[in-house]
Design goal:
two-stranded antiparallel ribbon; mainly alpha; 1% strand; 428 residues; 2 strands; 18 helices
């Protein structure tokens, strides 16, 4: 077999592998679970009571509290980075270059995120600032994704959207380092060397936030309540780096080393148990709390690896839950649910729809989940999905799309014929 056919087969294998992993229903199911978990967690926070005796959770059960308090934001980061890094990893390692220009990549991400985000920020800010000028600084910071650096306003207007500032920072990082990695790998003659270079880059991006956290906590003694220090991209990029590493690993492996149902289940159970133990052991300022997010990113990495890199005919039974229609449906509208659930919860609470006592926490969860899912569905189809169609304004090469190619071709042909026409006789 020739080298050309070998490269073609490798390219086809990489293409089929990437298609199956990027369109995996399991990832959509994970999005749904993560979104629902986020809603429950914020309702839990709403029903926390603080008094002279300390903090009192809605249900005084540390085991249940550890489950509800298990933060899933790192799962969003790992999945997002994994999906967006795949094309760069394939281009760097196998030369399968279908990466989009940086401007086009950022344009498409903007059409996916900004329409709904700007609408929500402007609406909620206007309702909470009925008289001008209002807290104009809060508005400017949210519209520029810089509120994550403001100790006072990081959780204003739309509390959960601090994480979108990190998403934007990751997009800018990816379009900067991705092409550099591709160019560097073209100078390397072996696939192993290219894999090692990409993996080393991901490891460096993962370790940099760990070093930042260590210096801030141990050397400078900065408390965990200094939100910009521990919530900013300099501290949370590790989750994205883990997702980038997952993309590099799966591209490097290709079809090799796929696992069966039992190893996949064992991997998932071990990672889930580790996440629960991490949440249970985490207390303010202790080691587990300080390094919670870098460690959680590694565990989500392991869980997603065991979910994605398996033999297709041997899917574990629990995958049926992740692929179920109702859960993937929640995953489809998860971004809208993430955006709207907190202001909706506060609106229902202030209106007296939600119970006031801690005993009403389970009912409050049910009401917020149902109302949030309905609002998210409407938001997805009326704002989020139409906004994403703006990505079609550019073609696959990042150029403005020509929607009437026939008319354009006819116009160009007419222009070519124009110089050869005989001049019309002058009117007498």
């Amino acid at each position: 077999m020739s080298a050309t056919s070998n490269a073609s087969n490798a390219s086809n294998t990489s293409n089929s592998t990437s298609t199956s992993t990027t369109r995996s229903p399991e990832l959509q199911g994970f999005r749904g679970l993560a979104a629902l978990s986020t809603v429950v967690f914020h309702v839990w926070q709403q029903y926390y009571v603080y008094d002279a005796q300390g903090a009192h959770p809605p249900i005084d059960n540390p085991y249940l509290g550890a489950l509800i308090s298990l933060e899933v934001i790192d799962l969003f980061f790992v999945m997002s980075a994994y999906l967006l890094t795949l094309s760069y990893a394939r281009a760097a390692i196998d030369g399968y270059d279908r990466t989009r220009p940086g401007r086009d990549f950022l344009f498409r991400r903007a059409t996916r995120i900004l329409p709904l985000y700007f609408l929500a920020v402007l609406l909620i800010w206007s309702l909470r600032n009925p008289s001008l000028p209002g807290d104009w600084r809060d508005l400017v910071e949210h519209l520029t994704f810089t509120h994550v650096f403001d100790q006072q306003r990081i959780f204003y207007t739309l509390g959960p959207t601090w994480s979108l500032s990190l998403e934007i920072a990751f997009y800018l990082t990816l379009v900067a380092v991705g092409p550099l990695a591709i160019r560097a790998c073209r100078r390397l003659h072996t696939r192993r060397a290219r894999v090692l270079l990409c993996a080393s880059g991901c490891a460096a991006l993962y370790l940099a936030p760990v070093a930042w956290i260590a210096v801030a906590h141990h050397a400078l003694g900065i408390p965990h309540t200094n939100w910009p220090v521990y919530f900013g991209p300099q501290a949370r990029l590790g989750g994205f780096a883990a997702g980038m590493g997952l993309a590099v690993l799966l591209v490097a492996l290709g079809e090799r080393g796929r696992i069966g149902a039992r190893p996949a289940t064992l991997s998932a159970v071990t990672a889930a148990a580790g996440l629960y133990a991490l949440s249970y052991a985490s207390e303010p300022e202790n080691t587990w709390h300080t390094y919670y997010h870098p460690l959680a990113a590694l565990l989500w990495f392991a869980l997603l690896y065991g979910t994605l890199h398996i033999r297709t005919p041997a899917r574990p039974r629990w995958h049926a839950l992740l692929r179920s229609g109702w859960l993937t449906g929640v995953g489809l509208v998860s971004y809208s649910l993430y955006i709207w659930h907190e202001p909706l919860m506060l609106l229902l609470y202030d209106a007296g729809v939600l119970p006031r006592s801690q005993a009403g926490f389970p009912l409050a969860v049910l009401l917020v989940v149902v109302a949030g899912a309905l609002a998210a569905t409407v938001s997805y189809w009326t704002v989020e999905y139409p906004g994403s169609l703006l990505a079609r304004l550019r073609d696959k090469k990042g150029r403005p799309r020509e929607f009437y190619p026939e008319a354009e071709a006819e116009s160009e042909a007419e222009a070519e014929r124009e110089p050869h026409r005989k001049p019309e006789p002058a009117l007498r």
